[in-house]
Design the sequence.
């Protein structure tokens, strides 16, 4: 059994954005813009790959629908809770340690950098500043209107925050890559544009020995959404595996049952926590 880690992350990203039509495709669009800016700034293939993967997961710490929708405001209020949760969810998985750190600081404004730099334990990656700007670009796009007519307003809005919300070098790179009309058309056709970028991303192929740590990560993201299900999926996975063993299934089939147990509630990521925890009779 071999699985692409990138394919898993893309699938997880897509499911998280199914929680509301207003969020559909958000992670992919931010990944596309981040990649374009990072490429313009000369990031290595390894750093571009981590940036792209980070962008696909950057709002994984947004637990409720309200949190996700609030993050669509350009001047977001108190964004650091979901950034910190995202960091803690991902940092325990070795292949995502760098993306976790980028996520932790992706809402830090450029003019706040000195406050963080004063604390020696803080070292904000360039990729966090790229992700911050890319995220705000997508927030500014009115998905109900044609995009070319909005491009000048969006660019002016971003440029006006250079040196304040956004790192000047990142703003300059954005101003360059956003000149062609194709940049804006790719945003609204993000599935096609992301496929091109995916082909340039350094992927990790998970074998049977390493796939379970990835499943544990996804399980943790799923179950964290509600205090009622904190260990639910891991319990289901263990029970399913043991039932398979008692039923005389081979080790390979038992492993598939364990994986299915970890993922069986994946659809909950597309259900608002306000519904999951709605009081019943």
Sequence:
């Amino acid at each position: 059994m071999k699985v692409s880690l990138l394919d898993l992350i893309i699938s997880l990203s897509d499911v998280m954005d199914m929680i509301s039509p207003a969020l559909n495709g958000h992670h992919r669009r931010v990944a596309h813009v981040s990649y374009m800016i990072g490429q313009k700034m000369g990031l290595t293939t390894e750093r571009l790959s981590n940036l792209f993967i980070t962008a696909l997961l950057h709002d994984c710490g947004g637990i409720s629908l309200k949190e996700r929708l609030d993050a669509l405001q350009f001047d977001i209020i108190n964004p650091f809770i979901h950034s910190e949760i995202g960091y803690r969810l991902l940092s325990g998985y070795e292949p995502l340690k760098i993306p976790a750190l980028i996520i932790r600081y992706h809402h830090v404004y450029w003019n706040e950098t000195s406050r963080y730099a004063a604390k020696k334990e803080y070292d904000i990656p360039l990729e966090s500043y790229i992700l911050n700007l890319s995220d705000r670009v997508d927030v500014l796009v009115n998905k109900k209107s044609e995009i070319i007519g909005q491009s000048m307003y969006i660019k002016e809005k971003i440029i006006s925050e250079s040196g304040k919300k956004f790192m000047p070098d990142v703003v300059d790179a954005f101003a360059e890559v956003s000149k062609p009309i194709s940049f804006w058309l790719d945003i609204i056709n993000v599935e096609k544009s992301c496929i091109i970028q995916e082909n340039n991303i350094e992927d990790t192929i998970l074998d049977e020995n390493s796939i379970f740590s990835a499943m544990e990560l996804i399980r943790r993201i799923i179950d964290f959404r509600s205090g009622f299900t904190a260990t639910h999926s891991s319990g289901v996975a263990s029970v399913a595996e043991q039932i398979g063993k008692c039923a005389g299934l081979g080790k390979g089939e038992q492993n598939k049952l364990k994986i299915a147990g970890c993922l069986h509630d994946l659809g909950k990521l597309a259900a608002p926590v306000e519904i999951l925890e709605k009081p019943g009779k």
